[in-house]
Amino acid sequence: MYGLVRVYLVAGCGQQLQIVGSEMSVVSERARAADAAFAAVRDFYTISRYGKRRGDPTICDLTFGNPHEMPLGGLVTTLRERAVPKDKDWFAYKTSEQEPQAFLTQRLRRELALPFEPPDIALTTGAFAAIMVAFRIVLNAGDEAVISEPAWFCYEPMLLAADAVPRKVKLKLPTFDLDLSAIEAAIGPKTRGDCQHAAQSDRSDLR
Question: What is the dihedral of CA 30, 34, 35, 37, to 10 degrees?
């Protein structure tokens, strides 16, 4: 579908699109590139043999790392308690609040043995948001970021959505260790990020 798009912001109603003529795609090139990069994962999830059996209670599905047990009771209790508003601004627009910043600072100091301070901590709505914020803060349009493959399947589409250029290098086989020589060779004048994913965890580093 192609057309000239006008975007209207309506308070409380999100965005409304008006299509005029037939001069350009309704969807940006950036979004189309990100979608194409994610297509293999999307198709695997929806139309592959796996997709046809996904949700079958008779199989042990370890594909995406989703939980296989009910959430811990303490976690559910904490979420329930914090969902109950204690003042009129409980659900207001927020920035990173001091209490969780201080808590996370102490935990990260112990875990990583680094001198974190509360202002170093930025709270987001989840890991996806944190990674995208990091990409947007660190990378300019056209900057390159090195990723090692096999990588987390959202790095490439998220980099493309941030107007950045993924530079892919292969992990060492059969150990899947980082190939430091290949990473060094991939670094060029436009490189501004080195995003590596620890295969044994959900922690990512953007350097």
Answer: 140
pLDDT (tens digit, 9 = 90+) per residue, 92-113?
998 899 999 999 999 999 999 9
Q: Where in the chain is the domain with CATH 3.40.640.10?
A: 97-206
Long-range residue pairs from 131-138, CB within 8 A, at least 24 positions apart, any chain:
131/158, 131/204, 131/206, 132/158, 132/161, 132/162, 134/206, 135/159, 135/162, 135/164, 135/193, 135/206, 136/162, 138/192, 138/193, 138/206
Burial 80-97 (b: 16+ CB within 10 A, else e): eeeeeeeeeeeeeeeeee
CA distance 185 to 170: 12
Question: Which residue shows structure tokens 């057309």?
Answer: 3
**97-206 has which CATH code?**
3.40.640.10
User: What's the predicted TM-score (pTM) here?
Assistant: 0.74
Contact 164, 135 (CB under 8 A): yes
CB 144 within 8 A of CB 188: yes
